[in-house]
Amino acid sequence: IVGDRVFYLILQRLSGNVSFARNWTEYENGFGDSSDFWIGLRIINELTGSTPRLLRVEAVTWAGVFSACEYTNFTVAGASTNYAMTFGSYINSNMSSDSLTYHKGMQFSTTDRDNDHRSSSCSNTYGYGGWWFYSCFIANPTGQFRYSTASDSTGMIWKGAATSSSSEPLKSIRLMVQLV
């Protein structure tokens, strides 16, 4: 719940206890525990496929800086499109820049199913997580969990949330869709 709005978490990374280096089937079905999880592409499609939703991203840097942004009309299509993701507009809250538009329209990719626009797999190169990689990313919330602010392109990154470096790994991130 944010204010009087109800959201459904689709990704949450708070502790680093769960590895996001997973295969296609795991990303399709979901995985994790109560603090670190991916709800699954099938469920995200069920939540957004026929009814576009508002997507909210909340991130915290290791310096303790909280930032958030929202995207209108967020949808994830079905399995036949490799769960292609799109949205309407970026609504800036307090992030320094938009980190998702670069990924708009992309199909989902994992280490064992490469749907990005690069000749080599972005997932295998940048942290082994699944994501809507283009060539390769500006946002990579499924990268490796790092306990440091040192710039690291394989880490959990949302570039608009970083304060000192665009490749500064985050302390936590949550992606959620508004249900109504």
TrEMBL record:
Stated name of the protein: Fibrinogen C-terminal domain-containing protein
PANTHER family registered for this protein in UniProt: FIBRINOGEN/TENASCIN/ANGIOPOEITIN (PTHR19143)
InterPro entries: Fibrinogen-like_C, Fibrinogen_a/b/g_C_1, Fibrinogen_a/b/g_C_dom, Fibrinogen_C-term_domain
Gene Ontology CC: extracellular space
UniProt cross-references to Pfam families, sorted A to Z: Fibrinogen_C
Domain Fibrinogen C-terminal: 1-180
Superkingdom of origin organism: Eukaryota
